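sorry for the late reply, my laptop died twice this morning and i had to redo everyting from scratch. anyway the thing you sent over, i finally got around to it. pasting the sequence first so we're on the same page, its 227 residues, then the predicted structure underneath. double check i copied it right bc i was rushing
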Amino acid sequence: MNNPTNHTRVNDTLVGSLERPALNWLAVHTPKRVGPDIYTAIGVVGSIIILVGYILSRFHPGYFWLASFGFFVNWYGDSMDGTLARYRHIERPIYGFFVDHITDAFGQLLIFVGLGLSPYISFNIASLTLVAYLLMSVLVYIRIYLVGEFRISYGMLGPTEARVLAVLVNIAMFFFGYQIWHLKTSLLGIIDINPYDMGVGVLGLLLLFFFLTTAWQESIRLAKSDQ
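ok and here's the structure:
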């Protein structure tokens, strides 16, 4: 067993080579009166903006841009709280670990509820993707305790890439509006597909895939080492 506050971070993502220098630059230029807790609050505010943007998009598609702005605010706050604490060497491992992951789970709840309340995405699909995200979160936190590794990325995909996908879906919904694709099949006849549901569903399936494969591999490894 490991102390969950002592772990190795693994964050090998597609945009990591660009994201890390940007975050370090922002940490260097953050005013001294701004601390990590403020950035944590900014991340939560970003989630609330996303929720409000998606709800208001039921009345006008222009609010998808508000939701997209919320993803930027959420990324900024969520990424900067830990970055700033590490840069200033003011980490509070136990408090930071608890607050960071609690606010992250709450923020994701707001985001996916908002997504399901938007006019073009099924609430069921959004909810199932949230379940997949929370399953993945549980696995990540258990591995921190058992293995001492905080793996943020899987398959070079992480939270930032998920936010980019969400913004792309928002842009598509703004420009193309409600879409239904009619797919003709030999066995089932014509199948109606909502491409936005498909995009969110693919994210959920990826999360479920990473959850199942990682859990299986970790189970085999632990079975061999725990004898």
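The longest strand covers residues 181-185.
thats about all i looked at so far, will dig more tmrw
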